[in-house]
Amino acid sequence: MTSTPPGALPPERARLASALRELRTGTGLSLAALAAKTTFSKSSWERYLNGKTLPPGQAVRELCRLAGEPEGRCLALWELAEAEWSGRGAPARTDPPEAGAAEAGRAGGGGGAVLAVIASVCALAAGGLSVVLVLLVGQSADSGPGAPSSAVPSPRCRAAGCEGRNPMQMKCGTDPRTLASHRTTGGAHLELRYSARCGAGWARMWSTRIGDRLELKAADGGPAHSARIGDGAAAQSYVYTPMTEARPGTTIQACFRPVAGGGRECFDARV
To answer: 20 with 134, same domain?
Structure first.
């Protein structure tokens, strides 16, 4: 195992633990409830989420399922952490994680088509280790027909009450739709997300650099919100803007301002 200063987590394990804590926050589950819905104990989850112990890959998959998030990114972080933990090089992934079917409803309601969309495949390199990262983006974050409905907690805000609030803390990030996605010229990944249960939208970014900023606003007016990448751990994690109220028919816009310059990149989507 790679040696680290006393009390400090290796960066690979710190990034994984941060991503897992974010997923757990999105589920709204306590450690006891998380243990009840998975094959791992409460004490095990406490160690996994604090980075004290490297979780098995199956634990990562089960948490992603409960949070309704694609598992590809966290599994890539897990492989880097596992390589650090064991002191060996991480093997390159030759097969992407199998995509679960995501149900996409047509705008205006009335039925839906079952499809899985591979939004992007990128290489994540750290310390000479290269891992293929597959991000699966659908119109719904549902992990498939096997996901239990009891894993989705009630939201803590609605419509105007969500304005400026954190989507994960308000439990709006457990069942969102991805309205649009965009990859910047610098390689950052962006998404516009919407929760019908909360009546609000937000944007998120990953594969970013320290100092990058993502701005969000509703096209018909209202306050603007933004999020900034403050450190290296955030640059390797999902970072969310605060939410804005979004009624059906509303257009919301996200603009990315890279720290390296080159002008902002904007995209929008209609709820």
So the answer is: yes
The answer to the question of residue 115 being in a domain is: yes
Residue-number span of the structural domain to which 2 is assigned: 1-142
pLDDT digits (tens, 9 = 90+) for 47-76: 999 988 888 888 998 999 898 888 878 888
Task: Give bridge partners of residue 266 from the DSSP assignment.
Answer: 255
* Predicted TM-score (pTM) of this structure: 0.53
Return d(Cα 19, Cα 200) in angstroms, integer.
23
Contact partners, residue 196, CB within 8 Å, separation at least 6: 177
DSSP string, 20-80: HHHHHHHHT--HHHHHHHSSS-HHHHHHHHHTSSPPPHHHHHHHHHHHT--SHHHHHHHHH
3-state secondary structure of 11: helix
Question: How far is Cα 225 from Cα 171, in angstroms, rounded to an integer?
Answer: 18
158, 246 contact by CB (below 8 A): no
| Helix (H/G/I), strand (E/B), else coil: 192 | strand
Q: Which two tokens stand for residue 95?
A: 């097969």
